[in-house]
From TrEMBL:
Enzyme Commission (EC) number: 1.5.1.34
The protein's name in its UniProt record: Dihydropteridine reductase
Subunit structure: Homodimer.
Family recorded in the similarity comment: Belongs to the short-chain dehydrogenases/reductases (SDR) family.
Taxon lineage: Eukaryota, Amoebozoa, Evosea, Eumycetozoa, Myxogastria
CC terms in the record's Gene Ontology section: cytoplasm
CDD domains, alphabetized: DHPR_SDR_c_like
BP-aspect Gene Ontology terms: L-phenylalanine catabolic process; tetrahydrobiopterin biosynthetic process
Record key words, sorted: NADP, Oxidoreductase, Tetrahydrobiopterin biosynthesis
MF terms (GO), sorted A to Z: 6,7-dihydropteridine reductase activity; NADH binding; NADPH binding
Keyword Cell inner membrane: no
Superkingdom assignment: Eukaryota
Length: 231
């Protein structure tokens, strides 16, 4: 049975990814701050990257899980704010932990446990391709994630023939986004199921994957979602 680990697997997007892989007969593992009732296995972490990585690896070992076919990191967060704000350092540290540290931690796990030819997916952001003056901490950390993705595509990082891809959503249709922006046009938001389906297709069909290191934008208009490489 193929196996996928979802970092951030108990959040809205993580649950959607877990559910889709589960429906296709994959063994599923959630890594998150809380126990998942959806995934077959669950590892609960506390937010300290070095200790969390050790806990994930040891937790999988205790479950007799020695290898992964795919690892998907959808952990992260958003924070607005400009450079002149007094709490810019606090915001940047928070975004660094949520966006960069989670990507590094999941990539480290992938470097240890991903099978040859496996897939690592990290979550970037379409907004970080261009300047983000009103959400500077978010943009900086997502741009750093994009750099990590491109770096891991080179030899010396992941196992042989493994691929790394970045998903770059614009706006995801999550309950928290709907609550925060009730007047928005939800037809322009990407459904979580679409993301889960696309990631599964890449994991299950290596020949259908974009080139390793690609950053793939998810854009939705009038309820129709398309994916394409970032420019």
């Amino acid at each position: 049975m193929p196996r996928v680990l979802v970092y951030g697997g108990n959040g809205a997007l993580g649950n959607a990814v877990v559910s889709h892989f589960k429906s296709k007969g994959w063994d599923t593992i959630s890594v998150d701050f809380s126990q998942s009732s959806n995934a077959a296995h669950s590892v609960v972490i506390e937010g300290s990257s070095k200790e969390d990585v050790h806990k994930v690896i040891e937790g999988l070992k205790a479950k007799n899980i020695a290898a992964l076919d795919a690892l998907v990191c959808v952990a992260g967060g958003w924070q607005g704010g400009s450079i002149h704000e007094d709490d810019i350092f606090t915001k940047t540290e928070r975004m660094w932990q949520f966006n960069v540290q989670s990507s590094i931690a999941s990539s480290h796990v992938a470097s240890k446990l991903l099978n040859e030819g496996g897939l690592l997916v990290l979550t970037g952001a379409n907004a970080a391709i261009t300047p983000t003056p009103s959400m500077i901490s978010y943009g900086i950390t997502k741009a750093a994630t994009h750099h990590l993705i491109k770096s891991l595509a080179h030899e010396g990082g992941l196992p042989k023939k493994a691929s790394v891809l970045g998903i770059l959503p614009i706006t995801l249709d999550t309950p928290s986004n709907r609550a925060a922006m009730p007047g928005a046009n939800f037809d322009e938001w990407t459904p979580l199921d679409f993301v889960g389906t696309q990631v599964y297709e890449w994991a299950a069909h290596p020949n259908a994957r974009p080139a390793s290191g690609s950053l793939i934008v998810f854009k939705t208009a009038n309820k129709i979602t398309e994916t394409f490489p970032a420019q």
